[in-house]
Amino acid sequence: MSAVGQPSSGRRAFLARTAGVASLLLAGLVAGRAWAHDPAGDIPRLPNGKPDFSGIWQTTSAADYDLEPHGARKDAPPGPGVVEGGFIPYLPEALEKRRWNFENRHTADPRLKCWTLGTPRGIYYPEPFQIFHRERDLTIVFQFGHSVRTIHTNGTKHPAEGGNEFWLGDSRGHWEGDTLVVDVTDFGDQTWLDRSGNYHSTELHVVERWRFLDANTIEYHATLEDPKVFSRPWSLSVLLHRHREKNFQLIENYCFTLDYDEYYPLPAGSMPK
Amino acid sequence: MNTRRDSLTAVTAAVLAAVFLAPGLLCAQQTGAPPAATTGGIQRETKIIPIASGEWTGPRLRDGQPDVQGHWSNTIANHNNLTDPQGGIPGDPAARPLGPRELRAPSRVTDPPDGQVPFQPWAREKQQELLRFFHNPIRPEYIEPLARCAPAGVPKSFTWHGFEIRQYPGYVLLLFNSGTRIIHLDDKPHLPENIKLWNADSRGRWEGNTLIVDVRNNNAKARFARTGEFASENVHIEERYIFSNDGKRFNYVATITDPTVYTRPWTITIPVRRYTEEDEPDGWHFEVAYANHDGPERIIERYERICVENNGPFGNVAVTGR
Predict the structure, then answer these.
(1) Do A132 and B173 touch (CB under 8 A)?
(2) Model pTM greater than 0.90?
(3) pLDDT for residue A41
(4) Distance from CA of B198 to the nearest CA of A (A)
(5) Does the model's ipTM exceed the 0.85 cut?
């Protein structure tokens, strides 16, 4: 959403062109996937035969800057948007907070405090994350803040006592063929969906679909519903690329320590060189 | 069971904050009194049970690693005091008199034999200064970084709450109450030397029942205990996690070398025990919940750890205090 208003006519044309190109590319990808996956074979698999998402992943999209189509801004490269249908269907009464968030994004975005990004934002934030995959669960370690999310795939359910306000939600996954489907509930309302101020309430419910397009590419799809903020469920999709650089690893980024770490181990001048 | 676990840590932190701020409770917590029951308080074994390095006869994972996955916590005390772990924090204005030293657990420093960190004179003086002002932190550096939600670092994380080990081909993952370590089991080189990290950069290998980890790139910002022991960013740590073949215990034995701060390498030993479905979650050593599922068996789950976002550290002013 450009400055939370309607796109200008020039921009609208640009967006339409971009969307057209994007859908052509998408069609190509879909077609490519169809034959690359038939017969299913050349993707990493766990001993139980399910896809093995272990690896270090990152999107190249501009999703975290703004999920919706947007031209260049001083604080964001342009992007065609990753929302199916273009824009997020806010309830009319939810737009005011959205507008306030956008206008105050340079101070109010929780990422600026290095707070846990939440779900799904952590997945398309422009820093790598690593998936450690066992049959019973997936552990996602995000470089940003080094926060840790567990997706349970052992048949367990959301906590019996609902209404937990987790920062990353409570994630329970199951397999539909080679697609990992994750139901995520029990959210707090302090995380944003991107740095342009798209947001949600504690009523957020996310259904993720993770699947390999090829051994080094995951298609990540998330449907978000939140009856307090959105008029209907909506979906976003990004591609996640495997980091294959030689010796690539996460470098912990406990950025919330940066305001005080100058005092440790000892203040400057207290320690011999 | 309350599963409002945004809050498990926050609740624990709140309790600790109370402990930290309330002299009476502080006293009870830190003067070596045994816990009232096994489900409450901090473990207070007084002996380190030796475990020899040798063959591993226990279960293995598909990549050949000894299977040591699960929940663990130290058996002796928390991070209050490095050289007298059950002795509380010296200078605590609310401390009660301690009994004879020999009735408490030995120093976590197992070499040199005197149980003291072999500080260079300037560093000893600094450590004493940090300790002296621990209860009266009039300067930013007197506030322990963990109290601001920083990772507890290497090796203090092993004395701060329980932790979980998860293993994967090529990796051992350590999930602590405050911070996470990824131990790489391949031979990729360490990160460039100028990159310094709270939880350092770890390269490990298994020899029989022992996981040996080379720890470099340590920013040394996380101290070793509330008693102020510290290293510099030149520190090099070699860790040995020696697991007993019954799978119930391991001893963490780390040799710490730093010519900037010490006169010689020294060794810290932290005994650790396993927690299983047989144990009741206690909010400190065993911070887990049981999963909601249809089967009769208990399945242990760990919930997310959140600190700074929930204003969780003890003494909330410490978060922004500069």
Answers:
(1) yes
(2) no
(3) 61
(4) 8
(5) yes
